[in-house]
Design brief:
515 residues, mainly beta, Dex49a from penicillium minioluteum complex, domain 1, Pectate Lyase C-like, 19-stranded parallel β-sheet, seven-stranded mixed β-sheet, 42 strands, binds 2-acetamido-2-deoxy-beta-D-glucopyranose, GH28_Enzymes, signal, cell wall biogenesis/degradation, hydrolase
Length: 515
């Protein structure tokens, strides 16, 4: 059941209604022991998690909705609360153990009070495209034998998907409940709808999954939920949760990517919460045309290689409104060699990547917030990261050309806010790392990089890099404009002021501020 909290205000001419919605907390999760969250006076369901707790809800935009975040212990809030993105217009007040603020618009927000863990507040717009649970064009998984109690692995979802594949245009409906599922393949022209309060979970047993590849350092791996090859018009949406059960899976020696749109065209994913991935979580691979919107990826910050969204060898991919919390990179793009390690199951020959955008994203990682690389085996063209924030990272923005001899060309970072940087993933820790590294797997060029309107509130552990590798693999063409370092109100005018020290084999680097 979805809990709806409705407010009706009768106007003279029309009836205006605002509401917010939260979702049943599945039995396997417990509530936060550190925070309570009240929305317009009613408690919202919180979830206790490894490194942070979280709340997921949806609300009508436009009027002020009050949020009260309180410490469960009752201890008074001391010091300045952390509220990220810092650039949001949030006027808060503190009363005793409560942090109080109003929101008119939906946001993904990371909060931290006192010395408690972080609380991730994920607010989406009210769903306006939820399908009915049954009827024409709908296949409800409960009618295909799915077990929604989580007592045993269930094949009812794949059965419903297979049946749907025979009637293109069908939506497979997953109602609230807990489903332990093996590998899922979504057929062409089929939608998978996960209702809020539904959880698809990996079983924790390797034997329940197909091993698709072996990674030299991490061992056997699978793609948990993927699209059929040569498919089109597939959609995964709703406010349900996809849970990778990482610790149990890794203990049984299997890593998994959660959602793999692969060999497909016109793919859409919206609204879903993905958590606890044991490997790169959401990886559009050899896809032509994809929109990933309102995506929430909550991985363990102490995990391993559990990237948020990695776009691989794909074209025309838009990621809009996403939060990715991960030990490894939050958002990245990659191209690879054929049939090596994780690329073994790729359906097509290696392809270039082009026209990929990440817009309005929030990153929290020990590695890179926003990155091109490390694989640049085939070219990567026209990648833009914009209007996005790093709450915490080792590197804020980067192009790390480490594997392959393709060219990374026309890569932009625009309107980016880097809040806090620390640590040194792979020996690099800085706000901007654009460089070519030689690990005897090929080197190549980086061309036409734009860095525009960036706030580096923190510069990271080491100096920045704008560097090629040798006379054949240059970094050629960088335009930097309006970069504000460490709260300075004047944009930096020199590489020195930008804290960039590594500049070997780079040329045509310009700093052009708008004023
Ligand atoms: C919260 O309450 C305020 C004041 O009554 C109202 O204007 C607003 O629409 C409510 N928000 C939601 C999402 O119901
Ligand atoms: C560079 O990429 C942007 C999209 O990020 C695109 O609009 C623009 O046309 C590209 N420029 C060139 C010269 O291809
Ligand atoms: C702020 O930036 C300006 C312009 O780059 C520079 O001259 C100045 O030294 C900076 N101030 C501080 C405190 O770093």
């Amino acid at each position: 059941m979805i809990a709806r909290v409705l407010l009706l205000a009768a106007g003279l001419i029309s009836l205006v209604s605002a509401e917010w919605v939260h979702y049943d907390r599945p039995s396997i999760y417990s509530k936060s022991t550190q925070y309570t969250v009240k929305v317009n006076g009613t408690f919202a369901n919180t979830v206790n998690y490894a490194d942070y707790d979280y709340v997921q809800l949806s609300m009508t935009e436009g009027s002020n909705t009050e949020f009260r975040i309180a410490t469960v212990s009752g201890s008074k809030i001391t010091g300045t609360p952390v509220i990220s993105p810092k650039q949001l217009p949030i006027d808060y007040k503190v009363e005793g153990n409560e942090l109080i603020f109003n929101l008119k618009k939906v946001h993904y927000i990371i909060l931290k009070l006192n010395n408690l863990k972080e609380l991730v507040l994920m607010i989406d717009r009210i769903e306006d495209d939820a399908p009915p649970s049954k009827g024409t064009g709908i296949m409800n998984v409960l009618n295909h034998g799915a077990d929604n109690t989580g007592s045993a692995i269930t094949d009812g979802i794949q059965k419903a998907l297979d049946a749907a594949g025979k009637k293109p245009g069908t939506t497979v409906y997953v109602p609230p409940g807990l489903y332990l599922v093996g590998n899922l393949v979504i057929p062409s022209q089929t939608s998978l709808y996960l209702a809020g309060g539904s959880v698809l979970r990996m079983t924790g047993k390797k034997a329940d999954y197909k091993v698709l590849y072996t990674k030299s350092d991490l061992g056997d791996g699978t793609w948990w939920i993927r699209t059929a090859f040569d498919s089109k018009d597939i959609r995964i949406y709703g406010r349900g949760t996809i849970d990778g059960n990482a610790e149990a899976m890794k203990k049984d020696k299997l890593i998994a990517s959660m959602v793999v749109p692969v060999g497909t065209t016109n793919f859409k994913m919206d609204g879903v919460l993905v958590r606890d991935s044991s490997f790169w979580a959401v990886i559009p691979t050899q896809v032509t045309g994809a929109k990933l919107t309102n995506i929430k990826i909550l991985n363990n910050i102490n995990g391993k290689q559990n990237d948020g969204i990695d776009v691989q060898e794909s074209t025309a991919v838009k990621v809009w409104r996403a939060i990715a919390i991960a030990n490894d990179d939050s958002f990245s793009t990659k191209t690879w060699l054929k049939d090596v390690g994780t690329t073994v199951p790729f359906p097509y020959d290696p392809r270039p990547l082009s026209d990929v955008s990440f817009d309005e994203c929030l990153a929290w990682t020990r590695c890179y917030g926003y990155k091109v690389g490390q694989g640049v085996y085939t070219d990567q063209n026209n990648v833009v990261f914009k209007n996005s924030v790093v709450y915490y990272g080792g590197v804020g923005l980067g192009i790390h050309h480490k594997f392959g001899s393709g060219t990374a060309r026309n890569i932009s970072f625009v309107n980016m806010d880097l809040e806090r940087l620390a640590g040194e993933p792979g020996g690099t820790g800085t706000w901007l790392a654009v460089f070519v590294q030689d690990v005897k797997k090929g080197v190549g060029s980086i061309e036409d990089v734009t860095v525009e309107n960036v706030r580096a509130r923190s510069t990271g552990k080491y100096h920045g890099k704008l560097a090629g590798y040798n006379a054949n693999s240059y970094l050629d063409g960088v335009v930097i404009s309006d970069v504000y370092m460490l709260g300075n109100k004047t944009a930096a005018k020199t590489l020195g002021e930008l804290d960039i020290k590594w500049t070997q084999f780079s040329k045509n680097v310009q700093i052009k501020n708008s004023k």
